[in-house]
Amino acid sequence: MVFTTGIRGTAWASVAKDTLVLLGVIFAGIFLPIHFFGSPANVITKVLAVQPNWMTLSPGSQGLGTTWFVCAVVSLLTPAPAAEREASVAA
User: Where are the domains of the chain?
Assistant: First the structure.
């Protein structure tokens, strides 16, 4: 009984935390750009006007280049295979 109650309490704390994080992301990513710039797209336009190099990947850069960046983003967005998830949960 105590064990399941502890797990249930932990799960609800996680739900509360995730809800607050989601609300924070929505506030920072949608509300603030709309309030200050009119839309999220206008933020990108303003950044391109002020600092155009911030939105580009320079080809052939020293060390980690464009290929590495694209591979890193794709690997972060790709879910792990089920076998790896089960192994990490068991550990």
Answer: 1-56, 57-91
